[in-house]
Design goal:
globular; single chain; mainly alpha
Length: about 140
Protein backbone atom coordinates (compact mmCIF):
# COMPACT_ATOMS: atom_id res chain seq x y z
CA UNK A 1 0.00 0.00 0.00
CA UNK A 2 1.37 3.42 -1.00
CA UNK A 3 1.01 6.34 1.50
CA UNK A 4 0.46 9.88 0.27
CA UNK A 5 2.11 12.11 2.86
CA UNK A 6 2.36 15.26 0.71
CA UNK A 7 -1.26 16.42 1.34
CA UNK A 8 -0.83 15.83 5.09
CA UNK A 9 2.44 17.78 5.18
CA UNK A 10 0.91 20.63 3.17
CA UNK A 11 -2.03 20.83 5.56
CA UNK A 12 0.32 20.73 8.56
CA UNK A 13 2.50 23.49 7.10
CA UNK A 14 -0.57 25.62 6.38
CA UNK A 15 -1.85 25.14 9.94
CA UNK A 16 1.53 26.19 11.39
CA UNK A 17 1.70 29.26 9.14
CA UNK A 18 -1.87 30.27 9.96
CA UNK A 19 -1.29 29.90 13.70
CA UNK A 20 1.73 32.22 13.37
CA UNK A 21 -0.40 34.73 11.45
CA UNK A 22 -3.00 34.61 14.20
CA UNK A 23 -0.38 35.39 16.85
CA UNK A 24 1.01 38.22 14.73
CA UNK A 25 -2.49 39.58 14.13
CA UNK A 26 -3.20 39.45 17.87
CA UNK A 27 0.04 41.33 18.59
CA UNK A 28 -0.74 43.99 15.99
CA UNK A 29 -4.29 44.35 17.31
CA UNK A 30 -3.02 44.77 20.89
CA UNK A 31 -0.47 47.38 19.79
CA UNK A 32 -3.11 49.24 17.82
CA UNK A 33 -5.45 49.20 20.82
CA UNK A 34 -2.68 50.57 23.08
CA UNK A 35 -2.02 53.40 20.62
CA UNK A 36 -5.75 54.09 20.32
CA UNK A 37 -6.12 54.19 24.11
CA UNK A 38 -3.18 56.58 24.39
CA UNK A 39 -4.63 58.80 21.68
CA UNK A 40 -8.02 58.81 23.41
CA UNK A 41 -6.36 59.70 26.71
CA UNK A 42 -4.37 62.49 25.09
CA UNK A 43 -7.59 63.91 23.69
CA UNK A 44 -8.84 64.22 27.27
CA UNK A 45 -5.97 66.62 27.89
CA UNK A 46 -6.99 68.62 24.83
CA UNK A 47 -10.64 68.92 25.85
CA UNK A 48 -9.88 71.00 28.92
CA UNK A 49 -11.97 74.11 28.22
CA UNK A 50 -9.92 76.32 30.54
CA UNK A 51 -6.89 76.07 28.25
CA UNK A 52 -6.34 78.18 25.17
CA UNK A 53 -6.30 76.45 21.79
CA UNK A 54 -2.51 76.82 21.29
CA UNK A 55 -1.80 75.54 24.80
CA UNK A 56 -4.19 72.62 24.27
CA UNK A 57 -2.46 71.69 21.00
CA UNK A 58 0.92 72.02 22.70
CA UNK A 59 -0.13 69.68 25.53
CA UNK A 60 -1.54 67.17 23.06
CA UNK A 61 1.73 67.19 21.10
CA UNK A 62 3.71 66.73 24.33
CA UNK A 63 1.53 63.77 25.38
CA UNK A 64 1.83 62.14 21.95
CA UNK A 65 5.60 62.72 21.93
CA UNK A 66 5.90 61.15 25.39
CA UNK A 67 3.79 58.15 24.34
CA UNK A 68 5.78 57.49 21.18
CA UNK A 69 9.22 58.12 22.73
CA UNK A 70 8.60 56.86 26.28
CA UNK A 71 11.74 54.75 26.67
CA UNK A 72 14.15 57.31 25.23
CA UNK A 73 12.47 60.23 27.01
CA UNK A 74 12.47 58.51 30.39
CA UNK A 75 16.14 57.55 29.98
CA UNK A 76 16.98 61.17 29.09
CA UNK A 77 15.01 62.42 32.10
CA UNK A 78 16.84 60.04 34.42
CA UNK A 79 20.18 61.39 33.21
CA UNK A 80 19.05 65.01 32.91
CA UNK A 81 20.20 65.29 29.31
CA UNK A 82 19.53 64.09 25.80
CA UNK A 83 17.77 64.97 22.58
CA UNK A 84 14.35 63.62 23.63
CA UNK A 85 14.46 65.67 26.83
CA UNK A 86 15.45 68.78 24.84
CA UNK A 87 12.56 68.14 22.44
CA UNK A 88 10.12 67.80 25.36
CA UNK A 89 11.40 71.08 26.82
CA UNK A 90 10.71 72.73 23.46
CA UNK A 91 7.22 71.19 23.23
CA UNK A 92 6.45 72.46 26.74
CA UNK A 93 7.87 75.88 25.83
CA UNK A 94 10.47 75.99 28.57
CA UNK A 95 12.26 79.33 28.31
CA UNK A 96 15.88 79.04 27.16
CA UNK A 97 17.20 80.49 30.41
CA UNK A 98 15.24 77.88 32.40
CA UNK A 99 16.25 74.82 30.36
CA UNK A 100 19.29 73.87 32.50
CA UNK A 101 17.07 73.98 35.62
CA UNK A 102 14.40 71.95 33.79
CA UNK A 103 16.91 69.27 32.78
CA UNK A 104 18.31 69.11 36.30
CA UNK A 105 14.80 68.92 37.78
CA UNK A 106 13.86 65.91 35.61
CA UNK A 107 16.90 64.09 36.93
CA UNK A 108 16.46 65.03 40.59
CA UNK A 109 12.68 64.46 40.61
CA UNK A 110 12.60 61.49 38.25
CA UNK A 111 11.02 59.19 40.86
CA UNK A 112 8.21 61.69 41.46
CA UNK A 113 7.67 62.37 37.74
CA UNK A 114 7.52 58.68 36.82
CA UNK A 115 6.63 56.97 40.11
CA UNK A 116 5.67 53.59 38.63
CA UNK A 117 5.44 51.52 35.49
CA UNK A 118 1.76 52.51 35.42
CA UNK A 119 2.55 56.22 34.89
CA UNK A 120 0.89 57.45 31.71
CA UNK A 121 2.18 60.02 29.24
CA UNK A 122 -0.69 62.30 30.32
CA UNK A 123 0.36 62.07 33.97
CA UNK A 124 3.98 62.75 33.05
CA UNK A 125 3.11 65.85 31.01
CA UNK A 126 0.85 67.13 33.80
CA UNK A 127 3.65 66.65 36.35
CA UNK A 128 6.21 68.30 34.08
CA UNK A 129 3.90 71.30 33.56
CA UNK A 130 3.47 71.64 37.34
CA UNK A 131 7.24 71.55 37.85
CA UNK A 132 7.77 74.08 35.06
CA UNK A 133 5.34 76.34 36.91
CA UNK A 134 7.53 76.03 39.98
CA UNK A 135 10.53 77.04 37.87
CA UNK A 136 8.75 80.27 36.97
CA UNK A 137 7.20 79.09 33.70
CA UNK A 138 3.56 79.36 32.67
Amino acid sequence: MKLHTAPFLSALAAAVLLSGCSALTDTIAASTQTFTDTTKSSSEVSTNASKSAPETAQLKQAVEFAAINWMQLSANMASGQGEHLRAMADLLRVKPAQKPAFYSMTKSKFAQLIPSTETTPEQLVKSLKAEIGRLGQV
